[in-house]
Amino acid sequence: MTATPVLVLLDHAPDGTLRAPVRELLTLARDLAGDAGVHGVWAGDQDVAAARPVLAAQGVTAVHRLVTDADPHVSDVLADGLQAALAATGSTLLLLVSSFENKEAAARLAVRTGAGVVTDVDGLTLEDGRVVAHKTVLAGTWTTRCAVTTPTAVVTVKANAVPAQDAPAPSDPRVEDLPVAVRPSSTRVTVVERSEHAASGRPDLGSANVVVVGGRGTEGDFSPVEELADVLGGAVGATRVATDEGWIGHDAQIGQTGVTVSPRLYVGAGVSGAVHHRGGMQASGTIVAVNSDPDAPIFEIADFGIVGDLFTVLPQTAAELRRLQG
């Protein structure tokens, strides 16, 4: 157990509700902290009230709301706020959800404080008082253990790495304002415009429990992929070829130069399994591959493989699932 509270950055939507992976981080933090407790860090002007039921169910002791006139969506500003939270609580372990924005802020924070930083972690343990992170590297071909040798550790954790579980007893988290002195250099970048994607009704790709992916084999027709994803309540992803061809937006790209996913269930349709794609999905729980080419590399890592036409297999699967769901 840690001697100081474990800090967790509370990623939230514009309406103040917590993003799904945060519950997983709070569960992990609670296991590591023991009696030291879990504290949350809240960045943004949104009211904490919408998140309070989840925070209470997770046993969070306190929430530190960063107070600053600067925009916390800027990574430098967020790093300033996280540094203030570490100093105010004396915490030696900060957990963040793995995302492009959070990994950038974590890196900046580590440079400023001399903390050890590990990103895209699959698991976390304490061994002889030292934080040890478990992660896959080299396109998912190796599993490593990274021991943090500095007094403070900053760790970003992949979504779906830990099953979320409520605390044995709920808490009554107190909310405290934490003034943040933002460095002048942190305000050199400002947000001039922000636009939101049209809601698709599907979960976020990076944190979805189920991801259905289309590749070159779709030949641009993603309708079977989208249909199966909707039946399963999952997200839709794509390979680099599919996004480069303009068949789907680049924000759906999975791989070393795209989004890294680790869902409980990954379904690849018409996906060959090139190394740059495997690097972004090989940590998935169960991998199902549908491809007409029996020699496709993805079958080497698939738990279940179907050699067949995706335009036949996926609609039949969706129809059978609907029948079973009643």
What does this structure look like?
There is one protein chain. By secondary structure, the protein is of the alpha/beta class. It folds into two domains: 182 residues, Rossmann fold (3-Layer(aba) Sandwich); 121 residues, TPP-binding domain (Rossmann fold). The chain is 26% helix and 25% strand. It has eight helices and 15 strands. The protein has a seven-stranded parallel sheet with strand order 5-9-4-1-2-3-10, sandwiched between helices. A five-stranded parallel sheet has the order 12-11-13-14-15. It has a three-stranded antiparallel sheet with strand order 6-7-8, with no helix packed on it. Strand 1, helix 1 and strand 2 form a beta-alpha-beta unit. Helix 3 crosses helix 4 and helix 5 runs parallel beside helix 8. The longest helix is centred in the C-terminal third of the chain and has 16 residues. It is globular, with a radius of gyration of 21 Å. It starts with 5 loop residues before the first strand and ends with a helix.
